[in-house]
């Protein structure tokens, strides 16, 4: 097995080359190899040391295989200090990505050169921690406090040209990292350039760190790691010495390491990587995908078409009339113009996508050669059956037929075709060219290669794809309908929509459920309620009509200017709609309910317990294969705070026995709604967690 760090002598220069594919992660062998190589270079009388990475990148960060395991010496902070303290001239040559510990190693060297395509960054906040090997102390000294705070609190990747401008690197040059690094180090030695340890540079001037801390905490909706990183950068300015600053950084790092938020974010990190790995699709090749059809050019259909065009697919947009087709094209052009303005597309690319890659059609025959067709028409079973009957008649053999339904039974839709094996659900989230989640809904007869094609499309579109089984609402909307019902029950019992939204936004949700309903359109929930009532509600289920009355008055949320909130002053300046509380009070009076007070803690606990209980039913029934599938769905589609890991990770950290006890206590008030999930009862009885199920599924 090759050494993780190669050692090469070129005259009076030693080259330490990382060889730890695929991304030269800073695992134990790499750290040890760098330390041993540096010792040897100094012992052999070298004058300079070049550190670079072979393969596709410099050190791209920590080795995720070591997460959760006791670290082995040399630890990264000590290694960085050792590199910086070397009496030799140490240069790093960067290519690919120098992220996290990778950038911290580079900052510990005395000079830094990079290829133009290189990117640097300190993304640790996304894992619930902060740079813990001197990054918060060294970066402000080379880039200044403002730039360092921006990079560290956002975790964003910075291109080489910007990194040069900020002072993070010293030179950008074309070429192979070994060659440009060697040339730069030789030039520095020939010039007699001094060692330049960043830790010996003067501390930057302090700024108003209290104000910045408060702003970062507010922007992160309660996520601690970016705000705590502000305090670490503050130490770079205010600590009595560089060593004292490093000590403070380490203290703050360990605080975060021991936090629930770090545990939640690490869970989310690994869940992202596991969610698309399905044993049943191993070795199954997807069907070819080049041209797709989209039926329906409303907001959803236009968003799907936009995402497909941006991924390099050609799209036929089918509408019922020439006017509707042109309107759909206008929506697609509007979506793409955003990419044009942001510099993601050139004018030529925009023109090619809208005139060559996009075809408008009003006849189903135009879909005859499509590899995959997605319908995004009105959410009505009869309408969708008509569409699939037509697709069955015109689409070529082997074409994948997909429905973007949010709730409806894919098996029923597939049954009207002569090829149910080619049918699946592809549930996008609006706006489809922005939202990352895609539920790939596998019907009873969906062929494995059709399922694989759904996941291949999701990957091509840059989506996070989750496998879902067939039920009303699949994973996300099924769970949503229950926790949203829980919120409705709390309103009947005495809470207000505004209290509930405030409590859940403080918990970390991007928006509370009533603000979300206004954004999506209250007519959507109204249609679902009417459908469920038509199918027949269980007589034990609590129901209410106050939201229907809002809709009957034409108040559908943001699109009509009023819903639960009044948007007269704009979408962001939401204020409570004064018509809502009287409707709620009338409903309570009609049902004979005496309202009571709710604390924010109780609101959150009930809302989350309802979510977890239904999620446990979804996993127990196999609609979601693993708890992590639920967590990823809620994180990417429903605004769940990422630092809490997802509802089932949150439940594990809260304690399943205590949660089940609460559910059983509330069942005394409403036995129908609070029916404990059998899986939750089983896990508690066996002393296990949802995460145990994730590990078993690996």
Describe the structure in brief.
With 698 residues, this protein is of the alpha/beta class.
What would you note in describing this structure?
The structure is a single chain. With 698 residues, the chain is α/β, with parallel strands linked by helices. It folds into 3 domains: 5-258, 2-enoyl-CoA Hydratase, Chain A, domain 1, CATH 3.90.226; 285-468, NAD(P)-binding Rossmann-like Domain (Rossmann fold), CATH 3.40.50; 476-697, N-(1-d-carboxylethyl)-l-norvaline Dehydrogenase, domain 2 (Orthogonal Bundle). 50% of the residues lie in helices and 11% in strands. It is built from 29 helices and 19 strands. It has an 8-stranded mixed beta sheet, sandwiched between helices. A 6-stranded mixed beta sheet has the order 1-2-3-4-6-9, sandwiched between helices. A 3-stranded mixed beta sheet has the order 5-7-8. The radius of gyration is 28 Å and the shape is globular. The two termini are 27 Å apart. The relative contact order is 0.06. The mean pLDDT is 95. InterPro entries: 3-OHacyl-CoA_DH_NAD-bd, 3HC_DH_C, 6-PGluconate_DH-like_C_sf, ClpP/crotonase-like_dom_sf, Enoyl-CoA_hyd/isom_CS, Enoyl-CoA_hydra/iso, NAD(P)-bd_dom_sf. This is Enoyl-CoA hydratase/isomerase family protein.
